[in-house]
Structure formats: C-alpha cells, structure tokens
Amino acid sequence: SIVDPLLRTGYHFQPRKNWINDPNAPLYYKGWYHIFYQYNPKGAVWGNIVWGHSVSRDLINWVALKPALEPSIPSDRYGCWSGSATTMPDGTPAIMYTGVNRPDVDYQVQNVAYPRNTSDPLLREWVKPSHNPIIVPGGGVNATQFRDPTTAWRAAGGHWRLLIGSVSGSARGVAYVYRSRDFRRWTRARRPLHSAAATGMWECPDFYPVEAAGRREGLDTSVPGGGRPRVKYVLKNSLDLRRYDYYTVGAYDRRAERYVPDDPAGDERHLRYDYGNFYASKTFYDPAKRRRILWGWANESDTSADDVAKGWAGIQAIPRTVWLDPSGKQLLQWPIEEVEALRGRSVTLKGRVIKPGQHLEVTGLQTAQADVEVSFEVPSLAGAERLDDPALAGDAQRLCGARGAAVEGGVGPFGLWVLASADRRERTAVFFRVFRAAAAGSDSKPVVLMCSDPTKSSLNPNLYQPTFAGFVDTDISNGKISLRTLIDRSVVESFGAGGKTCILSRVYPSLAFGKNARLYVFNSGKADVKVSRLTAWEMRKPRMNGA
Ligand code: DQQ
C-alpha cells in the first residue's frame, strides 16, 4: 500500500525529504524566525540524528539551510538530540542540546553551541566550544534517561536556571534544575523543580510564564517574578510511555526553586495540549509580536514501509499562539494569525439547520487543503444522552471509542466530515457530542466531548487509525460551540471552542484526495443543529523548504 504523493502536506512544515521529529530551539533573531528539528539526513526512518534548520520571515514560508548541528565532537558523536535556545543578555542566542556519546544510546550529556557570526541573521554556522560537554549526569541521576534541556531563565542576581528531563526509579518523571553563573559551569539543585509518580520519563520539558486572567500577550521566559503577582507558570512534559504532551498550570516559588500545580490533582488529570498526534513540543517567546508560540511534532500513522516509499516522514503542526484561559485552569491555543495569509477562495453558509440524520455538502471550492471555521448552535439540549457509566464519564478517549461518529446520539454527534469521498465511504469525522452530567445536581454543566474519528478515513487497511478525543471545558448551556479545522491533505488539525481542546490526526485517504476530497457538515444526533455560520477557505501553498 503506497500512500499517494498527493497526500504530502501543503502548508505544514516539512523539509524536502526524509525523517523529522521534535522541533528544537525555536527562536526569533534580527527579523527572522528559526526552527531547528530532529532530522535524519539519510532516510525516512529515525536515526543519524542532526539538527535540520530552516528560517522564515513569517513562520509560514520557509527556506531550508544546512543542518545547524551534526555530530562532530566526542560528546555528540552518536547524535545531536533535542534542546532549546536561550537569548543571552547581549541578544545572542545560545543552544543547549543533548549529545549521545556512546554508540548504544546509553549515556546522555548536554552540550552548548553559539553562532559563529552574530551579524548573520540566518545564524548559519554554529560553534561548539571546547569546554563541552557542560553537563554530565551526576550521582543518582539516570544517565540513560537524561535529556532535552529547556530554555534557561534568569534568577536572582542574573544567575541562570534550566531544566533537564529524566526519570527516577522506574516511573517517576522528573525535571531537574541546573544553576549557573556563566552558562558554562552548571550544578544541579538538590531537589528537582517538580516530579510526578507513574508518568515515566519526562522528555522535552518546557517551563514558562503566562499572564494570568486571559491576556493573550506572551511573556519572555526570563520575566522578572517580582512585582508581577499575576504571572502563572506552565510546566509541560512529553510522556515517552504514552506519547503525548501534558501540562499543568501553577506557581513557581523562586526562592525554593519549586513548581507547584494549582490543582493538586493536576498531574493525574493529564491536561493535554492536543488530544491527538502531537508530541515533543516546545514554546518560545516571540518578541516581535509579543506572544508565546507553540511548535509540536506530528508523526505519520501509515507504516514505516510506506514512509520509506514516500521518502518522508513527520511534520510540524501549525505553530499555535498559547495563552491562559480566563478561568486560569487551562491554556487556549490558536493557529498563528499569519496562517490566514494563505487563505484563498472561500465559501460561506449562514443559518442552515441540519436535521437529525442529515448532512450538507460545502461545495464551490477544493477542500483537500483548506481552513474551515464553523459556529454551531443547538436549539435544545433537552435530548442530551446521559453519561451514567463512570468508566466512560472520566475518559474521553474511551467514551469516543464507544460512541464514535457512527453511533447515533441525542445532541450530536455533529460536526464535519473532512477529506470525504463523494460516496462518503471515506471520511474523517471531527465532531462534538453533548452529554447530561450523571446523577449530579440539576445545575451541573452538560459535558461536551470533542472527537476526531479517522476509522473511516481510508480504504487502505494498513494504517493506524486511532480515535482521539478530549472533553471541552465550556459552558454550552446557550447551545453555542465553535470549531476550526485546518485540513492539509494528510493532516486534520482541529481547535474546539476557540482553542480549548485541540486534536491533530494524520489520515491517508485512498479516494478522497486532490480534487476528490469533499467537505460536509453532518448531524447524527436526534436534535436539530444549526450552522450559524461556516466559512471554508482554500489554502495556498507557501514556500516550503524548496519542496
Ligand atoms: N526525541 C529526541 C530526544 C527526545 C525524543 C531524539 C522525544 O532528545 O527525548 O530524537 O521525541
């Protein structure tokens, strides 16, 4: 089963060919955005890892440069693994990254690299000073699980702090704190910033301040803590065991150098950036537009043999602006505004009621590469299904597995069928389903589930087609909810309720690609659903690394 070349993405970040994984060290320098990424220059499977490097003026059109870091010193001979950039007080970025110095991947150390020529806005050449490695796993640290340094921040007296992900014992995820005066000699703080039982290795930790109370503006990682009581912190970890990125919102006690999630059960709740295929993400502060931007990697879900045949594997999700929800309990995410510059021809529908069991095709444009924004209104929630099974009530993924797009409901499932064939044998459903909260008092909020169901996305049998789902913490009592979906040939990237719940899926239609890809609104519930407004735009292809 060879995946069709028309399924290569059009506006998601990809190099011209080969394997990519984690985004590394995103940064802004002298008018240019930089993204580095884990890259195999020799093929479409993981291995031979170097740092690919691309630059952009707008985070949308990308120019590929030579790899920025390749194995060249004893402390990175077997791979230049993930890391982050920190801007020095003089404006120069430094990169900290993990080097593998033994062939068996068994020992991980941290290295630093600096630009050779700071007057080059493209930062083409990076130099590794001879004092590398600058951090080695010390006593009590698991040297085989010790990697992915964060962006460093400045503490009292201008001293530096950064985190390194690890695991202690068999399954306690840990973020160790390292301190330095000179960015050269680093010592580990006695206690980690934070740790959590049963989470396994914490890959790619990320730790950053956000403005409290729903302000969209981002903060520099080194924002001074003093005098800014409204600043909250976010700690994100990528769980190697479960392959997703979860985060908590909390407080950073600078004196004790400890982080405490606001919700004591935060680490058990596993709030996720994305309930789909999205991993090893990293944020950076964009000083040009004063926002914090999130990059995340989306793997393929075809077979590795397909990847080898295609000659490429892995994309980066569309960069997202992240900020704290007014509730303070979670983040909101939205595609960076620059992506809207790719919008071309559009179609708008208004005030269309979709009756139970009905669907409506959105015609008049190609939708294999599109951006869709839709506002739904459910006139009555009276018919919402009960959510009595406690095992399902707390587990969105299982709930959606049991009540997928094809299972008729009360209020919903309603939403979009994207990348659908004319006969709808192929279709990816992105939808909501509303439940009445079980047993609880009559004033309890209806429960909103958001799902991305690719189980009918392709007639090709050799694909991984997991249904992904998350709850949406929104008040739907007025019947209103919105959905935005970025469709890009083999990507379906969705933002529910203004970015409260996000789900990225990879799909590989065998019929519904190119001009044959169609878009529908559907309603498989028992209650009417109104499309108050839907606009779909064709998306142009940006310059993408010369591909
Ligand atoms: N990928 C890198 C590691 C990181 C993992 C290696 C996460 O540094 O822990 O390619 O995907």
From TrEMBL:
Q: Which GO terms describe its molecular function?
A: hydrolase activity, hydrolyzing O-glycosyl compounds
For this UniProt record, the keywords arranged alphabetically read as follows: Glycoprotein, Glycosidase, Hydrolase, Signal
Which Gene3D superfamilies has this protein been placed in?
Exo-inulinase, domain 1, Glycosyl hydrolase domain, family 43
Q: Which GO terms describe its biological process?
A: carbohydrate metabolic process
Domain Glycosyl hydrolase family 32 N-terminal: from-to ranges: 12-335
Superkingdom per UniProt = Eukaryota
What Pfam family does this protein match (any one)? Glyco_hydro_32N
The coiled-coil regions, if any, are none
**Any idea where the Glycosyl hydrolase family 32 C-terminal domain is?**
338-538
Family (UniProt): Belongs to the glycosyl hydrolase 32 family.
Identify the PANTHER family for this entry: BETA-FRUCTOFURANOSIDASE, INSOLUBLE ISOENZYME CWINV1-RELATED (PTHR31953)
- What's the protein here called? Uncharacterized protein
